[in-house]
Amino acid sequence: MRLINETPFPLVPINSTVAPPAHSLTFVLKGSFAIKPGAPCEAAKKQRPIAGDKTYLDEIGRSPCWSNDLAPFKPHTDFFIIGAFHQPGGRAAPEGRGGFELGPLRKELIFHGPRTAAVLPDKSWRIGPAEPMTSVPLRWEFSFGGLSDKRNPMGKGIDPLPGSAPPLIPLPQIEDPREPLRRPTDRPAPANFAPMPVGFHARRRKLGTRDRRWQVFRAPLPPSDYDPSYHNAAPPDQQAGNYPRGDEKLVLRNLHPSIPELVTYLPGLRPRLAVVRKTDTGPVAEEVALNLDTIVALPDEDEIVLLWRGVTPVRSRMYFDELPVAMCDTERLDVPGKLDGMPAKLLATYLEEAGAGAKKDAEETAQTMSEIVKTLEKAKVPPELVQQVKGTTDPMALYQLLDGHLDKVLTELEAKYGITPPQ
Q1: 306, CA 20 to 30 Å: which among 88, 214, 267, 377?
Q2: From the CB of residue 82, how many other CB atoms can be counted at a distance below 10 Å?
Q3: Global confidence as pTM
Q4: Which helix (H) or strand (E) holds 35?
Q5: CA distance 262 to 394
Q6: Per residue in 294-309, pLDDT tens?
């Protein structure tokens, strides 16, 4: 497949099986945008490449620093924030609040400085004061959880510090204000703005029942209870049921290092993609809808990343001949219809190039056949063979003629000299 990408953004096609067992092709377009306070974001000078899952590799832990761009399909739109909570003005305090607004999504979390709870002889605990802090990273290691908690085995609030006496339990620094941790038996839902790892129970359970019956009767297809929202990495309250337009207002409170309340807007772009498909009655062009299914805010880097995804059916994983060419471009939402004629334009270009290619191939074939005829004449092969070759334009037919002549010559040599042809 030839990709004609008229956008400044990376575009990749990936094999997928969105509706198994049928094959499909997923297109992923990833745009990086510079945040403009009070105005729509603008395309960044440097575009981030399309990437898979990435994790931090530091002393804090292994929570994700990027969630997989190559999902075959997302039934909902993900919104997550990669960065940190910042105290307004950089003034240290033991506690603070941060949140966001994006379309219908609203969320606020409470952030604490480092704090611990001492476990008392009667198994109760005493929560110590939080230390003043200026920022808290948006990482699941700072949310509620523990090694025994499948919801967030990376978190704090269950496991005591190794070797501490009396036992000291580090408490979560990121909480939902509606569900704060107060008692040793509390098990609040882990809260964060960041993408969830694939191993968290909220995602892993959506892979379906992968037992012996599945292995024997259904694999490699996914289980019948597989949920494609497994690929949605945002916390459930940061997933939108409808794909956004792409010009929504975004408000970030205490999540930017220097702007306590940052107001910006998504860039207002709509990408459109068309493919040429070969059918039994000839090539046709069709549009593949691209949905905005991932929005990533990186306020510490003054960036927003958007991912659009589109799916089209194919007959097999070897789609290169079936879909010989695809074209992608963008139009502004406030100027709709600019690219309505893109499929027809792409088909006309493809047919023109295909015609030119066929003409060039025919010319090259004719030249090659002419050179073969000259070679045969110099080799003094039977004139009737030369005449047959002159009347042939099909390379396969030419091969059969020459192969038949060679067999005849070898048979005559064998009969005359008793030579056995090599096998």
Answers
A1: 88
A2: 22
A3: 0.84
A4: none
A5: 69
A6: 999 999 999 999 999 9
